[in-house]
Amino acid sequence: MNLLQTLVAFVIALGTLIVFHELGHYLVARWCGVKVLRFSVGMGRVVWSRRFGPDQTEWAISALPLGGYVKMLDGREQDVTHLPEAELRREFTRQNVWKRIAIVAAGPIANFLLAIVLFAGLYMHGIEEPATRLAQPAPGTPAQLAGLKRDDVVTAVNGVRVAGWSELRWQLVRAAVDAKEGGDARIEVRRPSRGTFTFTLPAAALTALDLDGDVPASLGLAIALPPPVLGKVDPGGAGARAGLRTGDAIVALDGAPVQDVGAFTQAVRAAPGKAIALDVVRAGQPLRLTITPEPARADDPRKGSVTVGKIKVELLGRPDMIVVADGPARATVKAARRVWDSSVLTVRMIGRMLTGDVSWKNVTGPITIADYAGQSSRIGLASYLSFLAVVSISLGVMNLLPIPVLDGGHLLYYSLEVLTGRPVPERFGEIAQRLGVGLLVTLMALAVFNDVARLM
């Protein structure tokens, strides 16, 4: 069932982004007076089509779903010598260079506009998310060494205000990218009954982060959670063998009070194969049990594969939640700023990859995107729409890269035409086109390799 939901979520996301991208090209081409012959969702052989409109434009679905295109009347691709003068005036290459630039740029711009609309809608509707109140940082983590403590409420990162956990994570990712240039991260917190403080996370800790992983957790930042109360207890797990039951409240571990779910989880994970004394309250009565977590392998964001303890019980309790909502004007401005920041961050990440400062493992492909589509759809509609906006931004940025065969490559040609006053030589364009195809195939192969490596 999860696989089916993932596939459906991926197809809907991909189809939506392709349609909006190509609609950008189509609408501006029509506005500029260029005749559009075909609007295709997908590449390769046409499997379904219908003709509509005064120009009888063919609207088609093609066999290969990874992409789409708008086919215009273009003398480079069709024989136009037999057409009347009225039709020739609507041929793409006969338009002035600024119209051609507008038509090509319209696709990526449509992706950015879609992301702004989605983010603005989410910000106006309001998003329930965990507050920025922190759990006690684990010993030795950058957050603990910086002086952050349990119940600190993060209010800003590098001077940018944060209202919820997703905003905090986003600003930490930005800070990690900025750290490549030697910048520390200033974390402003409000400490209950003691006022506001500023702490510093050093650049060295930020540059070591895996930006594709859980950035806050790698720094030692976690959401403050309530004391642990047990939900479902797996009959075959260490918890059931120790006598734990649904509804038990864990109050102490080896005589030390348990602050919250996170602290209890960390203590269990740190004790594989070791006996632990648990103080439990069951139906209002205190009870002491002894439990031995089972050893299991797990991935640690800082240490790689490690052995941890597991007891196979469900821990109940929600963190403090807030609803972040804005009016239409503020939501739109906030959405536009988010799209701009995300675009700049993507470009900077690409630059870091080219210089070797960031691993090429961060290049992801359709398998990872499909996985994220499925995960976000299972969380809820707001999460899925946010995912859709993020991917739309990435699609817009990638299409603006100056690679032949992409929109950015064509924009580069037309920019040179503006500067020199004459079109790029046809022979040069053919060679660049072949190189662009080769580069795209290489990047796609790398993305698929990284996807498979993550799965394994």
TrEMBL record:
<keyword id="KW-0378">Hydrolase</keyword>
<keyword id="KW-0479">Metal-binding</keyword>
<feature type="transmembrane region" description="Helical">
    <location>
        <begin position="7"/>
        <end position="28"/>
    </location>
</feature>
<keyword id="KW-0645">Protease</keyword>
<dbReference type="InterPro" id="IPR001478">
    <property type="entry name" value="PDZ"/>
</dbReference>
<protein>
    <recommendedName>
        <fullName>Zinc metalloprotease</fullName>
        <ecNumber>3.4.24.-</ecNumber>
    </recommendedName>
</protein>
<dbReference type="InterPro" id="IPR008915">
    <property type="entry name" value="Peptidase_M50"/>
</dbReference>
<dbReference type="GO" id="GO:0046872">
    <property type="term" value="F:metal ion binding"/>
</dbReference>
<dbReference type="Pfam" id="PF17820">
    <property type="entry name" value="PDZ_6"/>
</dbReference>
<dbReference type="GO" id="GO:0006508">
    <property type="term" value="P:proteolysis"/>
</dbReference>
<keyword id="KW-0472">Membrane</keyword>
<dbReference type="GO" id="GO:0016020">
    <property type="term" value="C:membrane"/>
</dbReference>
<dbReference type="Pfam" id="PF02163">
    <property type="entry name" value="Peptidase_M50"/>
</dbReference>
<keyword id="KW-0482">Metalloprotease</keyword>
<feature type="transmembrane region" description="Helical">
    <location>
        <begin position="431"/>
        <end position="449"/>
    </location>
</feature>
<feature type="transmembrane region" description="Helical">
    <location>
        <begin position="384"/>
        <end position="406"/>
    </location>
</feature>
<feature type="transmembrane region" description="Helical">
    <location>
        <begin position="101"/>
        <end position="124"/>
    </location>
</feature>
<keyword id="KW-0862">Zinc</keyword>
<dbReference type="InterPro" id="IPR036034">
    <property type="entry name" value="PDZ_sf"/>
</dbReference>
<dbReference type="InterPro" id="IPR004387">
    <property type="entry name" value="Pept_M50_Zn"/>
</dbReference>
<keyword id="KW-0812">Transmembrane</keyword>
<dbReference type="GO" id="GO:0004222">
    <property type="term" value="F:metalloendopeptidase activity"/>
</dbReference>
<dbReference type="InterPro" id="IPR041489">
    <property type="entry name" value="PDZ_6"/>
</dbReference>
<feature type="domain" description="PDZ">
    <location>
        <begin position="208"/>
        <end position="261"/>
    </location>
</feature>
<comment type="similarity">
    <text>Belongs to the peptidase M50B family.</text>
</comment>
<keyword id="KW-1133">Transmembrane helix</keyword>
